[in-house]
Amino acid sequence: MPDSQPTTLSATTALWAGIVFSVAFAGLIAALDPLLAPIAFAPDTGASHYYWMLPDPTGLTRAVAWACYAAHQLTLWGLIFAAQRQQPRTTGGLHWFNAVALAANAFFVLLHLVQTHVTYDGLAQDVSIWSSQGSVVLLLVVVLLMENQRRGLIGGKRVPMLVESGRFLRKYHGYLFSWAVVYTFWYHPMEATWGHLLGTVYTALLMLQGSLFLTRIHTNKWWTVALETLVVVHGTMVAVLQKNGLWPMFLFGFASVFVLTQMHGLGLPRWARALFVAAYAGGIVLVYSTIRPWPNVNEVLRIPLVEYALVFVVAGLLAAGAFVWRRHSGKPKLSPS
Description:
Layout: H1 11-32, H2 59-86, H3 96-118, H4 129-146, H5 148-151, H6 163-187, H7 194-211, H8 221-242, H9 247-260, H10 270-290, H11 302-329
Helix pairs in contact: 1-7, 2-3, 2-6, 3-7, 4-6, 4-11, 6-7, 7-8, 8-9, 9-10
């Protein structure tokens, strides 16, 4: 196994190269879209229906999608395991496993494009659309829990009862995040709608972040908050394209989390935070006075209420697991400090 000494390549350089690759890849998807064979999709039946699926899937199309997903997933889990066994220090350069993870993710991203053009279907034929959306929500919730000790949960205030579960997740979150991102990545085919393209860029950036673990850029507060807040753009754009009028719920719902939590970890001066709050409140007043009926303004609270409730649900489940673990093993803590 290679040693854990970092390479001379800067992780920051790799980050910017990965961002360029992610955006350029979306352009490649759009350019190749005319080559996709036309498909007579089944009629859309509502929120639980995923539209972009073959109407007549075969065992082969299903097997190819699941085999590609499994290969991608197991590769990344193996790299995380290998890195944790070596316990290298966090550096500004790339470790061997970072370089391998970057190359592996690039390979599987390209493979998914080829697979879409050959067998088309992702995992959507066999699993619910809510599982794909839920995996990303879980990722965002776990980030809130992990970051509680650094930036607090609400208004910069830490919640002491979340400390132990946050410590455990900081050590093992790579496995969960890898599953969440890779699973939702292989759920969808690589279509060229704006929703799909934004989703592909977002998941590619999350894979890029996952590839840079145990480097200093992986915990850079500006980069990590940028990843968290990209869901504002993606969620709002998808809602706009669905033409159901609910885009303000996604825009202001995810923006609520930024105002309540995420901006407090950036070290912003008080006046800057006040400007964000003013822009947020002003946007709500404007939209719900002109576009959406004012009685519907309560919908901006739905997303933050769900996210913050899930923070405590996840923490509670981990605490329950820790209790069982301690009773049967005699271990005094949920995880090493």
